[in-house]
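Q&A log
Question type: sequence-to-structure
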Amino acid sequence: MKKLSFGSFKMFKGNKSFSLVEVLLAVSVFAFSVTALSGSLYYGQESTRVSGDRTRAVLLAEEGIEAVRNIRTEAYSNLVDGTYGLVISSNQWNFSGTEDITDIFTRQVVISSLDAGVKEIQVTITWQQNTTRTGSLTLTTYLTSWNTSIWEQTTQAEFDTGIHENTVTAATGDGEVQLGTIVFGDWCNPTWTVSEYDLPGQGVAQSIEAIQGEIFIGTGQNASGLAFADLTVTSDEPPIVTLVEIFDGHKTNDVFGETGFGYIGTDTNAKEVVIIDVATTPFAEEGYFDAPGNLDADSVFVVGDKGYVTAGSPSGSSLYIFDLTSKTGSRSIIGTGISLTGTGKSLVVSGDYAYIAIDDATTQLEVVDISDPLNLSIVAQAQLTAAEGVDVFINESNNRAYLATKTSTTDPEMHILDITNKTGNLPVIGTYDTAGMDPTGVTAIVIDNVGVIVGHGGAEQYQVIDLTDINNPTRCGGLVTTTGINGVASIDNFDGNSYSYVITEDQNNELKIIQGGPGGGFGGGLGYPDDGAFTSSVSDTTSAAPYYFTAAWDEQLVPGIDLTFQLRSGTTSDLTGVPWYGPDGTSTTFFTDPLGEAIPAVMQNNRYVQYKGYFTSDTIATPVLESFRVNYEK
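Response status: OK
Response body:
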């Protein structure tokens, strides 16, 4: 038999048998086909299931949207920001917990506010698709308070029903509220146009004293004048002057006033000082002081239970102290007094010292230690190169004296003295020349760094002095009057305003009021107050238990100014005494977002509602309220 080798192996044409390679290839193709067919069948079934789950998720999400819509329809107030589940209770949808579960599906509803009347609703469905994969689907919609009521004020007529505090209703557009304009007093830009008053009689007003709300004037230096006039004055714009009462019977050289009593220095020898009860009308003499000898009172001052008077005769002048523990009858002298270098024209008592302007060309001011009324002593003086002393003003700190002297062609007429150390010759800090005006009175408004000096003649009879640089006082304003000015008293911070009260020889209007102040505003002497308020009328919702959603408003603001609000509500239309609330339900916070803020729970279920706006200004611009609205459900 012949052997075959692999090297000579051949396939003969027409052989029907399979080789080993062909068998292996056929098996592989068959196995792959079976696997592919099995995979296709499995994933087809999985895809069908996932698709079905997603469809159910969509249906659950849509159901959630409709459920929230139904809850909104029941009451928009039910849509409180937060995360919720849903449940059917008493045949209607309600929120319950933070999620709800149906089979493999978990549903969450998230509510959030976009603005005062729009809620964003997100319904999210999550489920487990298989052991390794989670499914999630979210639908979003927006719901509005379409069925809520709105109380709105926007017209001039509506705003006119409110209460204004430094605010006004303007006719701009259909109406708005803003701060009212006020006169901004400026010491350095004075005018005569504020107020004036005609005193009774034909006498010449010669002396003046003022406290907040009250002016005391002596007009009796001739037979036609009245001895004393008491007037009230308001801080209105312009101030309103009212005569309280007059008193006569003496020729008055000086006047002093305090609450309840007036004091006049007279030339009546037996009654150099007359005490007047101004608390009751008609005015009557309550008591008096008789200085030793035949003297005329030149100046009078009162502090507590002691009175002080300078009184003199051609032979000399003295300072006397008298007892005022009672105001009735003859008041006794305390000690023996002390002689002065000259006539004491003006007297101011501050602390333990009396400061006296002396009508003397060498010693214009004397300082008397009054700490022991039984042992008075002159401890300091001003000996100036100037004319005679006329008037003196002492600051509250008791370290500066502002002394006016008679006119001089060579020397200044106002002198600022350092009285910190009340011994010897007082040093001069600064001086001011009135340019020919002969002074009759001087005062200073220290808080505003200005002084005022008045008199007769010269170019200006009312002069305002800038004391910012106390070593170099300069003129910053003035006024002219042909009749001259006999005296001045100034009041600062009278309800936020400052004034000079001056007495002139104008027989028709002796008293004139000049507004002062640091200036400000938007020009022309006008501006806006620092703050103001507007309280609306009370709105009746006609519902016994309304739900208040938001407060919103339209405004005009610029940097540096602001407009905020508070609200209150109650069960009766009279809300007097009901607290005002901010958004956190306390009286210490304010609504600040004009786009809208939620009204707190403390205000809910009250039929009547009211708002109050708070306006703040930089004096140049004002906040403007164009409209205000409250969204609520009846």
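Response note: Residues 1-16 have pLDDT under 50 and may be disordered.
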